[in-house]
Structure formats: C-alpha cells, structure tokens
C-alpha cells in the first residue's frame, strides 16, 4: 500500500491550524485513493486488526477491530507525519486552555513517554457497521496524556457500499445550544477532528468547548471506518 512520502492531500501546518481553530475539524479529501482505502478495509479479518469487539448498545451497534501498537504501513508513517503537522496546534491548544501538558517533537518520543507512564493500550481501530448499526457520541479521553486531535477516515463508498452512516459531531459551548456538524466524507476522505475539548475565542477571552463524534445509523450495506488516535490508554 505505497503512499508518497509528502502526503500531497495534506494541507500545510498553517492551513490545518486555521481550519481547526475555526471549526474544530479539518477535512483531508482524497487522503487515500480507492486502492489504499480498500486495502485498509481488508485489514479486518487479516490478522492485522484483532480483538473483534461487538459494540454494546450504550455505545452503539456494530463491531470495532483494534489496530496493534505497531501500525501497518502506510498508517504508521501517516500517524508520525500527522503528529508533526499537528504538534503546534496540540501544544498551542493546551497552553490556551491552561493545561501544563506539552507534547514532544516526534511521535516516537510521545509513544515512549506513554509506555513509561503505563499507557500501553492502543486506541486506533477499524469499525464495521452493517444495516441498523451505529456508533453513539463518544470521545477518546482515556489516560493522562490525551492528544487533543485524531484522524478519522471513511474506507467505503456512500451510496454504493452503504447508505446512511454519516459521520457526525456535536459541539457544546457554555450556556449555548449544542452545534451539530456533519462531515461529508466519501471513500478515501479523512478529517482531523477534536478528540474532546478545544479553545474558542469569545468577547471576554478564550473558553473551552466540548466535542464528541458518532456515526449515524447505517440503513443498508456495510460501512468501514478508521479512527487513528495518537495517545494510548491504561
């Protein structure tokens, strides 16, 4: 599954920061071509994605397949490259929100710090949702070293492989109604999304907003999705 080293579908760091600061997410259309998306979806059942876990009703319906700590390519290289692109945003957000946690210069350093802190359970996964399956609103906030951003991607073609199954987010602002967000993902598209909280500038300075994400009910067919998470859980 070769992927160019420069990841041409990826915006530069400044563009990413502007999109993330404005909306809490940044679209990466066509990050994977159709062959790459199909190959990644095929990791389900290949032995590379294990621990087939049925979703409990309170978290949805469908199955999640955890990816190993050492990701297959091109996901390993992609995660390391994304970490570097997103590092200024991640550290900037934490500083603005008053957190003392800062992330090191490379993903390898961050991963080593996680291991030393007893955070060795990987959170990256593939999901397989079939007719009537869905995922409820959730966040990956496990552990003490939560990286504030993650990647999601769609590995099936809406309208052809499945119907329904939209990727949705909610943004909760203090003393305001929640804002719904629907990301128009096609096969191979990805997005950088807020894991849990991000700073938003108001008239009296910055305040925190809380974000969760979900997948709406699949009405027909089979939807394969990817969640690429930087931090690990206990």
Would you write up a description of this structure?
The model is unreliable at 1-6 (pLDDT under 50). The longest helix has 22 residues, at 75-96. It contains four helices and 16 strands. The strands form three sheets. Strands 1, 2, 4, 6, 8, 9, 12 and 15 form an eight-stranded antiparallel β-sheet that branches. It has one domain: Jelly Rolls (Sandwich), CATH 2.60.120. Helix content is 22%, strand content 36%. Helix 1 crosses helix 3 (75-96). By secondary structure, the chain is of the alpha+beta class. It is globular.
Features:
disordered N terminus, alpha+beta, 234 residues, 4 helices, 8-stranded antiparallel β-sheet, globular, Jelly Rolls, 22% helix, 6-stranded antiparallel β-sheet
